Amino acid sequence: MRAVLQRVSRASVAVDGAVIGEIGAGMLILVCAMQGDDDTKPAQLAAKIGKLRIFKDDAGKMNLSLRDTGGAALVVSQFTLAADLRGNRPGFSTAAPPNEGRRLYEAFAQAMRAEGFTVATGEFGADMAVSLVNDGPVTIWIEV
């Protein structure tokens, strides 16, 4: 699975103009299931993200994890993270098929909840409008 993490002051996702998920301080996680990902990947990704120290401590250093800060996560499916850029038009054949992608996306959101985080989500396969205030900015790409 691949993900792009953004440390945020706030973030929300809307479908057809209606906000369906929003958080305050925490992490916006854009996530993509890849072909070949198995059932172990969502929990591995959630555990790794939960421990990642990208939040500032009292000295202003990136020393705190999402768990340490009590922050929330907004999890949004993003199949375009599988983009193959060999030409001028990206291909997405390395993304998991839609049914598998949905299952792994939902398993990842559940794994984040199982790690103890408050989780809001987007809608898999929908045309979504994501709004965020990137804190830092801090944006990190991760793959398991």
3D architecture notes:
The protein is an alpha/beta fold and 144 residues long. It is built from three helices and eight strands. The strands form two sheets. Strands 1, 2, 3, 6, 7 and 8 form a six-stranded mixed β-sheet that branches. A hairpin with a 5-residue loop joins strand 4 (55-56) and strand 5. The longest helix has 17 residues, at 98-114. The protein is globular, with a radius of gyration of 15 Å.
User: How far is the N terminus from the C terminus?
Assistant: 6 Å
Whole-number count of domains: 1
Strand fraction equals 35-45%
Q: Report the CATH topology name.
A: D-tyrosyl-trna(Tyr) Deacylase, Chain: A
Please report the first level of CATH classification, the CATH class: Alpha Beta
Keywords:
144 residues, alpha/beta, D-tyrosyl-trna(Tyr) Deacylase, Chain: A, 6-stranded mixed β-sheet, two-stranded antiparallel ribbon, 8 strands, globular
Give a brief rundown of this model.
The protein is of the alpha/beta class. It is 22% helix and 40% strand. The protein has three helices and eight strands.
